[in-house]
């Protein structure tokens, strides 16, 4: 080790992901081993991602973490599991420029600082823990010079948050449930990268909710213990859907993709309802969005848009292409216009070019939108949606080499 | 037959029923044969029933029917099936007093008039077709002197509306799915009469809804065709629940009764959600009512109230006894007070003595209700519930011999 105080830092950026074949139910609570395979699409980190800086220094006297600028406890088992697993894989590090040398055996005694930042609201139910744990594990692995590939790292991220394992890759990703009791074969693999199906466009409706949702950890446990339908789903329904979904993705068969995505989202929420006490993640606004998409898809004869909902009321809508996304946004803005005190610029965020394509520049254009012809007596209701995010499938984790993007100070190792 | 024009009339009253183990899915669409057994409780006809007068006269030149005073078409297959089946069982009728003699063979040529009236809003989603078809079949059978018992009649009512077969008895009723292809063994039997478990109190919350619901006929068909969970439910889950529910009813085991009733309602709605396109019968208000009951039941350690929802957002709440019903009404009126323009007298209807027991005489008493301690941050929202009906388990069909209660004129056979 160098003699004078030093700080070594790594900054990484990791995307969120949304499952199109859902993960719901653990067969092992501690190792986070699922009852079925799942498949997700990674979302463009330009609009939804976590940035994490990890730092090590001989001057640090304990492991510390800051999330969105606020210090949080690292004492939870899930953080400790990830830290322990990465430390066990640490290797020699030599930074000639800075004159730092860390031997493999030193990592056990060294402490780390972690700063993490989401470029989207943490509380909005947009899989922040998935991106967060993926980024933590990825950044720590690079800091500690662990040689494991992203699939091997995914099995560690999995122990922080199940769905985090799928954020180690871009494009479409499969989390293989595995069979081993120690969970070593329960990891993510990339099915196709983000360039394979690049015409897809994703619009997320962040839905207002009066209720606090059941945490997915609690919900899953209750479902495993009480739902008589979950076992049937995991054993009989999902395996077939996984095969069909892989084929639909490989061949870019949007019709099959949409049918499977919608059916699997609905079945996951059906299992939640079959749980005792029942869990309701979708609300009336979620139902209206589904109804809007279903009616349009039916009127077109072939699906234009797939919908999927995680453990909350937000809709993730995957449009076949840019044209479908443009029409979808028009329909959504007709049914869910912004409140009078919201400006359009903060109501549709992310890739705003979709808004431009839709011919919508200001509130007058929103007001002038025609009612979707396929919806009888289409009603407009303000205040049911907080905002929309326009995005697309995106890439996996990357290292940010530009030190100005680091969240920790290069000399103190404390938040900037 | 008598020579001068005559009218022979029969008036009957038949209750509605609510399933506690649900019927969802037909294996034969025309005969209305279900995919599983179901069990219901009959509701007190004093608060929810259909009254039907059927008349026959040699002067009638066609079959006609009036529902709630308005003539409706009898051309539908379901009406025709019921009429045909009862006509096939008609026997000789002799009314010495009126000098009427109708021979068995005459019934084929004679026409009937039918007038039917619900003592509750038809559109409120309170099983009006169940009470309606049960009453039609029961009244026609008496008019035509058919010798069949109520179970045999239930197999005919079933062909009008599946759940109608369960309205031929009071108390708790089981609809046996049967095995025969012609449906002759798919009929209702009484498990226990209404006196067996007479401490139960039922409160129905008629919930406001912005949406038109999917008809249960369409919904069931879609579920049978598309839900991968329905088959598992019908084959693996329901048979066991039927046995357990029969036992719970026989032994008046409220804890098991409530657990089974709630779980089966939730599973039925889970199957609806697993249907393509998904069907949502419950809305945010329904969810809030469930949450309210679940929290209370949990805080008490043992269930006080069971909930069940049919193909709509209305909650049917079955309280263990009068004390539980009184507390339930207080909690409901706290969470769902009447709108400013609604008076309490029309907001809580049916057996108003529950309201009195709850110490609520006017709006001031409603406003003074304490928040349920088991609900954190309990919110009060006006306008989500249209009204509450307080009732209890009730008796089966009866004949009304008092001619003043007939809905048709004794001389003309036309609506009074």
TrEMBL record, chains A, B:
GO cellular component: cytosol; peroxisome
UniProt-recorded Gene Ontology molecular function terms: ATP binding; diphosphomevalonate decarboxylase activity
Protein name: Diphosphomevalonate decarboxylase
GO biological-process terms attached to the record: isopentenyl diphosphate biosynthetic process, mevalonate pathway; sterol biosynthetic process
EC number: 4.1.1.33
Task of the protein: Performs the first committed step in the biosynthesis of isoprene-containing compounds such as sterols and terpenoids.
Domain Diphosphomevalonate decarboxylase-like N-terminal: from-to ranges: 15-188
Keywords: ATP-binding, Lipid biosynthesis, Lipid metabolism, Lyase, Nucleotide-binding, Peroxisome, Steroid biosynthesis, Steroid metabolism, Sterol biosynthesis, Sterol metabolism
Pfam family, one: MDD_C
Family membership: Belongs to the diphosphomevalonate decarboxylase family.
Region (Disordered): 396-416
Transmembrane segments: none
Listed SUPFAM superfamilies: GHMP Kinase, C-terminal domain, Ribosomal protein S5 domain 2-like
PANTHER family: DIPHOSPHOMEVALONATE DECARBOXYLASE
UniProt domain Mvd1 C-terminal: residue ranges: 202-399
UniProt catalytic activity: (R)-5-diphosphomevalonate + ATP = isopentenyl diphosphate + ADP + phosphate + CO2
Cellular localisation: Peroxisome
NCBIfam families: mevDPdecarb
Enzyme class: lyase
